[in-house]
Specification:
The chain has four helices and no strands. It has about 90 residues and is mostly helical. It has one domain. The chain is elongated and about 65 Å long.
Length: about 90
């Protein structure tokens, strides 16, 4: 087995510290808004959703993943259905 060189050890330690910091931040700020983010009204969210292009949707899948995108679509469709009922 080959020994890790100094740079590998340093990078491993930095990655571990980054993971610990991220975990701690998630615990501390669990129910707060993301930094510099304002809440979007349901009307604005629905407007943005209805005007997404196929390329926008593809980009969303690439950036956030398929599961998160499907959840977003589900939430927007539920919001749209609630608006129709009223």
């Amino acid at each position: 087995m080959t020994e890790k060189n100094l740079y590998d050890l340093v990078v491993d330690e930095l990655i571990e510290r980054q993971r610990l910091v991220k975990s701690e931040l998630q615990k501390r700020f669990k129910k707060t808004n993301p930094f510099r983010m304002e809440k979007v009204s349901p009307d604005e969210a629905l407007y943005e959703y209805e005007h997404l292009t196929p390329q926008d949707m593809f980009n969303r899948i690439q950036n956030e993943g398929e599961v998160a995108t499907n959840q977003y679509i589900k939430e927007m469709e539920q919001l749209k259905n609630k608006r129709r009922v009223k």
